Each structure stands twice: as C-alpha cells, then as structure tokens.
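ENTRY TYPE: protein
WANTED: fold as tokens:
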Amino acid sequence: MKEGDTGETGAMRVVFVEVVKEELDRNPNLAVVTADISASAFDKARAQYPDRVVNVGIREQTMIGVAGGLALAGLRPVVHSYAPFLVERPFEQIKLDLGHQEVGAVLVSIGGSYDDPVWGRTHQAPGDVALIDSLPGWTVHVPGHWAEVEPLLRKALADDNRVYMRLSTRSNAESVSTSAGFAAVRQGKDGVVIAVGPVLDQVLAAVSTLDVTVLYASTIRPFDHFGLLTAARAASPNIVLVEPYLRGTSAHEVSNALVSMPHRLLSLGVERDTEPHAYGTPEDHDRIHGLHAEGIAQAVGTFLA
C-alpha cells in the first residue's frame, strides 16, 4: 500500500498478503498454509509454488499440523485464518506440533476480538493472546495501523522463532513506530496508560483532559518491563492497561515490571464475565465492554480520582 492511504477495512490483511507474496518469490524456504479463509488470495502463488503454498480446506487442526511438518523440514511456515480458527480450535496442535517440537512459525490472524460480529460468536476470539501467552517462547504483535504491519511481518518472516500477529480491520488514524518496546506518545505525571494496538485512538480521546503518560505497544510479547518501569518512575505508579482482547491479559507482566515499586493497576479490555448474544457492530461491542472513549474516560477518571 502507498503512503497516505488510510486504514480502511481490510487494509492490514491486504498488506499481509502483498508482503507474503513478495517474500515467496524471494525466499525459497517460505511456505503458506491456509484453511480456505483467504486461500483465494494466494491462488496464483499456489499455482507457481504448489509445494510451498498449501490449502487444507476447513481443517484447522490439520493446518497447524502441516505447518509443524513444514517447519521440521526446514521451511518457514506462515499460517493464516480468523483468530478463533487459528488459535482456539487448533490450540493443542500449536502447543504440541510447534511449541513442543521447538520449531518456528508465523501465525497471522484476522478478526480481532469482534471485528465481524455479524458472523456471531464463532468468529470472535478475545482470549487468543491469553492462550498464546500460556505457551513459552512466543512473540506477539498487535499492530494498530496498516503501516505497522509490513516491518513487523518482514522481521518475523526473516526469523525462525514462533510469532503470533493479530491483525484487525480496525485502525488508529496514524501509525506509530514499531521499534521494540513501548513508544511514548504523550507525557504526564498522574499515571501511565498503556494502549495496545488499535485502541490507541480511543485511549487518546479518553485521556485528553488528564495529565497522564500514554505508552503505545504494537509488540506486547516480549513485554517492555524496563520501558514501563522508567515511565512509572517519571510519572506515577498509577497504571492503566488497555488491551483490545481479554481484560487483564498482560496484568501479570505489569506486576513483574513493577515488582520493586508499590503500584496500582486498572485493567481494561474485553470483559471476562460478559457474553453478548446480540450481533450489532464492533462499536456496539466496544460499548458493552467499556472500550469506547467515553467508557475508558470514565474508568480512568474514577481510578485516578
């Protein structure tokens, strides 16, 4: 995509497909595995590289198993689907065929927690990062803008580790640096607010009248312990964690970062005790979970008060 484009629906996935197609031509060790979803985007590449671009049909466990086999054979597999079909359904295969075998792969999801609520609960996965986080050795990227996808993805493709990249159809208005660790997008003295991926715009709107530091992360694993500790020392040990997935997923990382400093923590995200049964829009689900600007503002204001 060209500089100046906006983060329209599907832009992150467009960048993902374009980059992977380019790398397939450049890197003979790169492979792609799909389970019907987005398989048509790789039709031409599949015809050109039938041994390295594989569509297994609607068999998500097989998709991860094939990726594990390709990795054991020395290839670098890229696996793509909706988050629940990529992480939740084949979780045992992720644990065993990749992690326990100690081989690498790049898992790239789309759909976020509830980007497409019209499809119902089957296409929603707010617990995906928490599941990946239960396994050792994973890097987790949560880009908040299409321009952040390419540098994170190219680095992942060039490595041999295990990477989970969580793409979304939702986007911040502008991209932020994807360098390792937190990027400080605002400085203040009354607390530190961590915004992960595509929630940054809502966070900035919510704290516009508050004197707080805002840290942004497009890479949440490994967690930037030193960056948070430095920001908390410069501001105040009142920490607000805003994640676009299960509330409190990174709470233990905040505690580890600030183990030497008494602190207070407010975790915001998709609620654990709420199970919406209405489809609605992503914005409707934001309101249900308090992840819209007004909900974040109320929660943060009460916490700091």
